[in-house]
Specification:
Five copies of one chain form a homopentamer. The first copy, chain A, has ten helices and no strands. By secondary structure, chain A is an all-alpha fold. The interface between D and E is large, with 59 and 53 residues.
């Protein structure tokens, strides 16, 4: 469970609820089912129309990815692990690490080192891992774009809903007392759209992008480590190069 | 027929209709022929002015492309097919696949493998397929841009229409009772523009972009497969490299 | 004469005129000379300040370029012509085409083939034509940016004009009857700005960009054709490579 | 202490305070705790949801980086220092500079020259320093993006707060006298959001970007200097190349 | 003196003054010292906070650069001059041009040809001039960004000022007669912000960008000319290559 996603979302919605309570008119004026239908339903409809069916299926996995703890370890641990494996291979040969590799949880690490165990040559290993990485980059990019799109669409549907409401109100000005509530209802769709865009799609989009970036950096470290091991570079060299990434120059 | 495009469009417009019905003033106040003419006609006029005649002719094919099922198979099937052809060629020679290739429906696949049947050398095959791909990329990009442009223009014409309506209303304030309906009419063009931008041009633009991306990825797989076959790489290598794309690392 | 530019512009302005007529208050309230001066004059002044004198001189040629029929032929005709010249040169020598080249209307084609007639070597020909192309790209890009800038500036001057008008109106609220017309006048500058941006600068900018793109693609085809002729490639090869661009894969 | 950051921030907030005082209604109407909570709290919540915990931890160091004097010297001093070290190494050998290097304050300089002292070969030195630089670029880019995000989120939360306030006000129009103050409160969240975006996040984001750019340019100079020393180029060459950066062509 | 900058600025501000005069309420309602202080002072404060002190010092030189006649000659004259120098060097040797070079006003030209006079080899000359060009590109880019930033900040401070004014007005609705003038004053900051953004920062930013682009193109021509002279290419070749840039293909 990724605590910051959960806490951020919960706190954000909670603060909006608090602001409504403190506003003194209760939740009543903020709830309007037709407004909810046009914004949420419209956003779903437009998104369904914009994307291919196989992209839409990634909505739930993407949500899970945003809410789950990232599976890649921090860079220092990763570098340590790679150095450990490199040393093991140098000392006892590549077969020695086979069982350990099977227990790895970082999937890209596992796959890269299984290829090492299988004796894959560096000139096959590197382009293959790069290709995997590139396709993962594409898939993640599509997921991130999906949520960015949802945010934008929710805003647009909110504006459309407000225009629909304003036209209804203006066409029917006979009762001045009804103007205020009618206008309040008209504004609700804009509010719903902004809430979905900021407190749902925006958070998920950004969190996915952060996790993706961390995963890509880690994968590149794994890739360069695996490549150096496959090329049978010295442990000293492997250590020095991997550590260059870590040494945080005090900023 | 691409179900998600149809369902998305139908549901989107249906929800707007529902919102209007639930608004309680009927469809009457939402229909204004002059407003419709200035937004739709203006968008058509500006688009005609912005693009060359031969780009404009692509409007209908582009719409069809957005509504039709994409012709390229999912990557796993594509990889399987390429591996199958590669094995056939190794076993029985390139002539053996000629008839099968003629029955292919994926046009880029068909063309690539016909070039293989014709015995095209890899150093001619690869740049030629890349050039084809690049020109297809250009043509698709122009179609996608056309719809992006239509969405933006509809919004701008909607705003111009609203300004025209507001000036008329403000210049003629003698009858306060007429202000509401006049303002409602003025807002209609903005609403029409937003609807065209979100529920038509935006959906088509995004769907075209999605299909284009899927097609480009598939074409690159076909290209790399055909290149490996032309270069007479081993079936084992071809399989391994193509499968590297597929193995979905659990995310 | 580029019909789509003319028709698009005429239809766009005609529809706005129609919308005004249908609005029922006549053209009167839409015409305000001071508003016109601040938007049009201000846009001219800002544009003059933003650009160098030699860029500003390109305004009229750029307008002509947008309104004139493009001088480059469609790609199929171009490919056919290059193949024809290549065959002539192979059969009768390069001098044979000299007179024909002089009659060419596509200027980049003419210049490229005159260099061939002059016996320019491929290693001089290609970089020189690429340099020419790059400088044309720069000049066209500057023209396109000029019109994009005009559109943005017109919008900004329109907003400034509206603010000037609103302040005048609000500072002088003593006569409520004057509020409506004063506000109408204030909105006129925003409307003028939007009209200039959408129905003039936007159309010209986009049309210039379309023509520029078509010209650049054609020039690249000419360049690659001339390079292949200079390198004395076989007619078969030249045909095959140039045709790869054309074969429209059914989309 | 970076005076321009401090002075800019202080003067900006001071001017807003002055504008409020000159407005004649006192600070009272500008202070509303619920509005403050929804904007500041909401921005914190959304930011927490958008970023990974380890990115959020960089908030305080990034603030310090924005407020502290940059540790890299101006380019002329840097060039002079590199030339000095290069001369020392040529004259007395690399060990001679060891003690001086340990006293350096520019961390990238220190690290680069320690590698020189350790006798690192140019083909190891250059890629390692480039890798360090790239990872620093990533870390700084993430910090800058964090503040850009905060600015955008504050604006969005301000708009949501205003919508919440407007709905409350419109739903409760019975007392016309309350409309003004209620609307004032509704606008406060937008104002808070704009103030956070412009007078906090925007300043920090831009200042971080400026410092980062200066540091990257300096690091590149250090890197090229260290590379030339490691490659044992002549002092004359090192001087000439480094000085090419400095000579400010009078503009 | 760059006439188009001066005329554009003067005409722009003059037209705004004219619009105010024609508005019939005089300059009075448009002048409000507190509004002026918050927008102009706030923009200065935020800009000071955003940039490093050494960037801020470039404000005045950048302004001068925008108002001064550009020092680089048009491309045809430049090409002619380079060809002249190349011929002189071929005929009389490199020392012959020394005195002439010292009198040159285009600083990049002067420096490049002084290096030629000093007998710098092409493999040192070209990277050094490229480095100089790159650093000039950076410095100019920073100046241009400074003015772009000022424009955006002025707009943001204008909006903040308007919000401050609106809150004051709404909190104090007791006197309806004061609403109009109070709102007028509130709008003034937005107007000031838009004026600074459009009629000052926008013009300077764009003019700097134009001059920078012209200078970079000229510098590249000088660089390629100097490189060809240093490489002792034939006058014929130098002429042909430099002229390729000039021949304006009729557009």
């Amino acid at each position: 469970m990724d605590k910051s996603t959960v806490v951020g979302l919960a706190a954000g919605w909670g603060l909006v609820a608090l602001a409504i309570i403190l506003g003194g008119v209760g939740f009543g004026p903020y709830i309007d089912v037709p407004s909810f239908i046009i914004v949420v339903g419209g956003t779903i409809a437009v998104t369904a129309g914009q994307f291919e069916a196989n992209e839409l299926k990634r909505f739930v996995p993407a949500l899970k990815y945003a809410f789950n703890e990232i599976k890649v370890e921090p860079l220092p641990e990763l570098v340590e692990k790679i150095t450990f494996y490199a040393t093991e291979i140098k000392k006892h040969g590549v077969m020695q690490i086979e069982r350990k590799v099977l227990e790895e949880k970082n999937p890209f690490f596992k796959e890269s080192f299984q290829l090492l165990v299988d004796g894959t040559k560096p000139d096959v290993l590197v382009p293959m891992l790069e290709l995997k990485n590139e396709h993962m980059d594409n898939r993640h990019g599509a997921m991130i774009a999906l949520f960015g799109n949802i945010g934008g669409t929710a805003g647009a549907m909110g504006m459309i809903g407000t225009l629909v409401g304003l036209v209804a109100m203006l066409a029917n000005l006979s009762d001045p007392a009804a103007v205020g509530p009618a206008m309040a209802v008209a504004l609700l769709t804009t509010m719903y759209g902004a809430l979905i865009g900021t407190l749902f799609a925006g958070i998920i989009e950004s969190k996915l992008a952060q996790k993706h970036k961390a995963e890509m950096v880690a994968n590149e470290v794994v890739l360069s480590g695996a490549a150096m091991i496959a090329a049978e570079e010295s442990i000293g060299n492997i250590k020095m190069k991997l550590n260059a990434i870590l040494v945080e120059i005090p900023e």
